[in-house]
Specification:
heterodimer; A: alpha/beta; Rossmann fold; 9 helices; 14 strands; 32% helix; B: mainly alpha; ABC transporter involved in vitamin B12 uptake, BtuC; two-stranded antiparallel sheet; 2 strands; transport (chain B); transmembrane transporter activity (chain B)
Chain lengths: 256, 418
C-alpha cells in the first residue's frame, strides 16, 4: 500500500485533568472512505477537531503524505488540504450557493468581487460531483432541502483542492432518499481520489460506503480494520466494549 | 386554455421550460414574492397609495413645490437610515443614531459658529465624532458583549445629555456657513440637473451592459435583454420625470426664481452608490451579510466577526454624523432637540419599510431611500391634511408596526417555503 494521506501516531489530548485522547493512531488512505465510529464521548469530535486544527494536540505525530506537519489553526489545516464539513453545516441561509461556497475566500479582481469566476467554479465543482439536484447555483441556501444543503457543504469543502474531507455525521438529519444521495456523493469523492473520513452512528451507512472502519473506545483507537473483514456485530462490539474476539484493545484485566 | 395555465407545476421538465422567456422571468418573480422575498414591493406600493390618498385629499400634495419639499425633508432621515441598514443587517440595533446625529451637529455648529472654522473642518470634526462614537458602541457590543439594544439605549440617554452639555444647557447655535446651508436649501441649475440625470442613466446602462456581457462571455446565464432594457428605460423614465418636474418654476414671486433639483438629491445619490457598491461588490459587504445570516458559519469561514460588527457600528454612527450635518443645514441652526424626538424612529421605520429585516441578514441601502420617502410622505401629507401631532405620532407608529409585521410575515413565509 502507498503512503497514507493522513497518519496520526500516539496522539494525546487532555482538557484539564480529563484525558480525551490516549495514544491514538489513525491512518487515512487516498481514494478510500474511512469510517470513524465510536460511542458518544469516545473522542470522535475531539479527534476531528485536532485534525482540523481547532484544538492543538498535546503530543503525537501528525503526518500528511508522509511528512511531519504542525497544525495550529483551521487555516493551517486548510492549507494542507484538510477540510471539515461539520454536522451543523455552517452555511448562511441568506446567501446563495456560490456565495456560501466562497465565503471567507472570495475571488476578487482588484477590490471588486469576481462573481462570474466564482459562479463558474462553483458550477464546475458541482458538475464534477455529478450534482444535478440544484436548479441554479444562484439559489438562496434557505430554499434548499436538507440533502441539498449537505451537498453544498460538501462541495464547498471540495472546492479548495482539498485532499482530505472529513464529514461529521452528514446523514444524521436526512430522509432515506436524501441519505442515499449524500452517501453516493461521499463514495464519488473517494472515487475521485480524495481521502474521506466519515463519522457516523449509522452502521448501514458505514457498511454501505466505507473501505475501512476505525473504532474509538473511551479515547483509544480500538481497531482500524478493512470493512470487508468484519461483520456488523463485530463493529458494534468494538464500539461498545473496545474489543471483539482477537480484534481490539487487550483486555485490561489480563494485562494486570 | 385556462385549464392548461392553471395546471399545477408538478412535472419537472415543463417547469424548466417555463423558466425561459419573459413570462418565465415574471413567474420567477411571482414565486419569489410568494416565497416571502418581497424586496422593494411594499415600499413602492406604499408610495403609490400615499400619492393617491394624499393627492385626492390635498391636491397641493402632488405639486412641484411640495415634491421638492419632500426630497429635502427626507434627506436626513434617509441618510441616517442608510447607516442603520448596516447595523440591522447584523441583526443589531442602534437606538442612539438620532442623538448621535445631534451630537455631531452640535460639534459642527460649535466649530463653525463659535470657533469660525471653515465648513470642511466642521464636517471633518462631525464625522470624526461619529466615527469615535461608532467605535465605542461597536467595542461595547462586540468585545464586551453587551446586547446592542442596551448599549445604544444607554447611549441614547447619554448623548441626549451630551448635546445639552455641548450647547450650554440649551442655547441655540445658528449655522450660517453657505456651503452647509446649501445642502438642504439650494438647488442645481436646470441644465446641471439634466446633465446629472443623463450621467446617472448612461452610467447605469453601461454597468448593466458590461455585467451582462461578462456573464455571456463566460457562458453563464445572463438576464434577458428585455429585462435589462426594462430596468434601464424604467430608470430613465423615473429620473427624467423627476428632473422635469423639479426644473419647473416653483416661485410664486416673479422677482426671484426657484427651480432645479435640490442639492440633497445628488448627495444622497452618491452615498447610495457608495454603500451599495460596498455591500454588493466587495468582500467586506459579503461578510456583513454572512455575519448577519449565520455568525458561527462566518467565524468558521475565517471572517473576523468582531471586526465586522464594530465596523458596522462605525458606519452607522458616521452616517448619523452626515445626517446631523443635514439636520443642521435644514434648520439653519442646532438646538438640544436636533436629532431628538422621532428622528431615530423615522430612520428605523424607513429602513424596515424599505424591506430591511429586523432579524438581520436581509436588506439593501436602497431600502433606506424608498422607506425614507414613504415615511416623509406620511409626515408631509398628514401635515398638509392638517392632522394634529397626536394623530401624526399614532399614524407613524402604526406604519412602523405594519412594516415590522410585513418583515416578520415574509420571514415566516421564507421559512415555510424551504
Amino acid at each position: 500500500m502507498g503512503t497514507p494521506l493522513l497518519e496520526l501516531r500516539g496522539i494525546n489530548k487532555s482538557f484539564g485533568p480529563v484525558q480525551v485522547l490516549r495514544d491514538v493512531a489513525f491512518t487515512v488512505q487516498p481514494g478510500e472512505v474511512t469510517a470513524l465510529v465510536g460511542d458518544n464521548g469516545a473522542g470522535k469530535s475531539t479527534l476531528v477537531k485536532c485534525i482540523g486544527g481547532i484544538y492543538p494536540i498535546d503530543s503525537g505525530d501528525y503526518l500528511i503524505e508522509g511528512k511531519q506537519v504542525s497544525v495550529h489553526s483551521p487555516r493551517d489545516a486548510a492549507q494542507l488540504g484538510v477540510e471539515i464539513v461539520y454536522q451543523d453545516l455552517a452555511l448562511c441561509d441568506n446567501l446563495d450557493i456560490v456565495q456560501n461556497m466562497f465565503l471567507g475566500r472570495e475571488r476578487r479582481s482588484g477590490m471588486i468581487l469576481d462573481e462570474p469566476t466564482m459562479e463558474q467554479l462553483a458550477s464546475e465543482t458541482l458538475a464534477s460531483l455529478s450534482v444535478r439536484t440544484v436548479k441554479s447555483v444562484r439559489q438562496q441556501v434557505s430554499s434548499l432541502s436538507g440533502g441539498q444543503r449537505q451537498t453544498v457543504a460538501i462541495a464547498k469543502a471540495v472546492l479548495w483542492n482539498s485532499k482530505l474531507v472529513i464529514l461529521d455525521e452528514p446523514t444524521a438529519a436526512l430522509g432515506v432518499a436524501q441519505t442515499a444521495q449524500v452517501l453516493e456523493l461521499v463514495r464519488r469523492l473517494a472515487d475521485n481520489g480524495l481521502a474521506v473520513v466519515l463519522i457516523s452512528h449509522n452502521m448501514n451507512d458505514v457498511f454501505a460506503v466505507s473501505d475501512r472502519i476505525a473504532a474509538l473506545y473511551l479515547g483509544r483507537m480500538a481497531a482500524q480494520v478493512k470493512t470487508t473483514d468484519v461483520t456488523h456485530a463485530q463493529v458494534v462490539e468494538l464500539i461498545t466494549s473496545g474489543r471483539s474476539g482477537a480484534l481490539g484493545l487487550a483486555e485490561e484485566g489480563a494485562a494486570a | 386554455m385556462s385549464a392548461v395555465t392553471k395546471e399545477p407545476a408538478t412535472a419537472v421538465a415543463p417547469q424548466a421550460a417555463r423558466d425561459e422567456g419573459i413570462l418565465g422571468y415574471l413567474r420567477g418573480y411571482g414565486q419569489k414574492v410568494r416565497g416571502g422575498d418581497m424586496g422593494a414591493l411594499p415600499a413602492v406600493l406604499g408610495l403609490l397609495v400615499l400619492c393617491v390618498v394624499f393627492g385626492l385629499a390635498r391636491p397641493v400634495f402632488l405639486t412641484a413645490p411640495n415634491f421638492a419639499n419632500l426630497l429635502t425633508q427626507a434627506g436626513p432621515v434617509v441618510v441616517i437610515a442608510m447607516g442603520l441598514v448596516f447595523v440591522l443587517l447584523l441583526g443589531e440595533i442602534d437606538l442612539s443614531a438620532g442623538y448621535t446625529s445631534g451630537v455631531c451637529a452640535a460639534v459642527l455648529a460649535i466649530m463653525l459658529t463659535t470657533h469660525g472654522y471653515p465648513w470642511y473642518v466642521g464636517v471633518a470634526a462631525a464625522l470624526a465624532t461619529g466615527l469615535v462614537i461608532g467605535l465605542l458602541l461597536g467595542f461595547l457590543v462586540a468585545k464586551v458583549g453587551i446586547p446592542s439594544f442596551v448599549v445604544t439605549l444607554a447611549a441614547f440617554l447619554g448623548f441626549q445629555g451630551t448635546v445639552l452639555w455641548l450647547l450650554d444647557e440649551g442655547t441655540n447655535i445658528s449655522v450660517r456657513d453657505s456651503v452647509i446651508i446649501s445642502l438642504e436649501n439650494e438647488y442645481l441649475s436646470p441644465a446641471v440637473g439634466w446633465g446629472l440625470a443623463a450621467v446617472t442613466v448612461l452610467g447605469f446602462a453601461a454597468v448593466q451592459l458590461i455585467q451582462q456581457r461578462n456573464r455571456r462571455r463566460r457562458g453563464l446565464k445572463a438576464d434577458l435583454w428585455q429585462v435589462v432594457a426594462f430596468r434601464v428605460i424604467g430608470l430613465a423614465v423615473l429620473v427624467g420625470f423627476a428632473v422635469a418636474i423639479l426644473n419647473q418654476e416653483r416661485s410664486r414671486n416673479p422677482l426671484f426664481s426657484l427651480k432645479g433639483v435640490p442639492i440633497i438629491v445628488p448627495v444622497v445619490g452618491v452615498l447610495l452608490l457608495l454603500w451599495t457598491f460596498v455591500l454588493r461588490r466587495t468582500a467586506y459587504g459579503r461578510h456583513i451579510y454572512a455575519v448577519g445570516g449565520n455568525k458561527e458559519a462566518a467565524r468558521r469561514a475565517g471572517i473576523a466577526v468582531d471586526r465586522i460588527r464594530i465596523s458596522a457600528f462605525v458606519i452607522c454612527s458616521s452616517m448619523a454624523a452626515v445626517g446631523g450635518v443635514l439636520l443642521a443645514s435644514q434648520a439653519r441652526s442646532v438646538d438640544p432637540n436636533t436629532g431628538g424626538s422621532n428622528v431615530l424612529l423615522y430612520a428605523v421605520a424607513a429602513a424596515v419599510i424599505g424591506g430591511t429585516s429586523l432579524f438581520g441578514g436581509k436588506g439593501r441601502v436602497l431600502d433606506a431611500v424608498l422607506g425614507g420617502l414613504v415615511i416623509t410622505m406620511i409626515i408631509n401629507g398628514m401635515g398638509l391634511v392638517g392632522w394634529s401631532s397626536a394623530y401624526k405620532y399614532i399614524a407613524t407608529g402604526v406604519v412602523l408596526l405594519l412594516a415590522a409585521s410585513v418583515d416578520a410575515f415574509s420571514r415566516r413565509r421564507a421559512a415555510a417555503s424551504s
